[in-house]
Amino acid sequence: MGPSLAPLAKMLIFFGLMLVILGGILLLAGKIPGLGRLPGDIFVQKGNFTFYFPLVTSILLSLLLTVILNLFLRR
């Protein structure tokens, strides 16, 4: 592998590890009671139509991941 491909290889390894970590978090998130059913999550059910948008859950997970990534990736 030439020197010009080394940054691409490192980036692919980094994103691969991030996907593995995110997959593990998603597997464990289903076992946390209340996650995904927080007040502020949008849930509409009418007849055969169901719409669910986890707004507050998404915001909390975004804040949590931002803090974690800032702690580990700070240069």
From TrEMBL:
Keywords: Membrane, Transmembrane, Transmembrane helix. The chain crosses the membrane at residues 12-32, 52-73. It holds the Pfam family DUF2905. This is DUF2905 domain-containing protein. It comes from Desulforamulus ruminis (strain ATCC 23193 / DSM 2154 / NCIMB 8452 / DL).
